[in-house]
Amino acid sequence: MLPVAILFSMAMIVLLWRGDPKRRRIAGQRGSSDGSSTRRLIFAAALLPGVLLATKGDSAAFLIWLGSCVVTGWLITHLPGRNPTDN
Question: What is the rounded end-to-end Cα distance, in angstroms, of the chain?
């Protein structure tokens, strides 16, 4: 269950990153970004595996899941972005 929980949360974090309105605006990407209600639902979905692991009582699995979410978010922030002033 742990690998599935980690992969699901990682996918939700990537979806949050891709639809971030501020990131899209700074990168000069056209098109609509995700609305606030959609982003809240994706955020809740990303936390759901952690809630399930915590209620299951497996603290080691919960901490591994939490660490993987933190590392995923950290790695995503280091992806190169397009500078709008570059031609």
Answer: 46
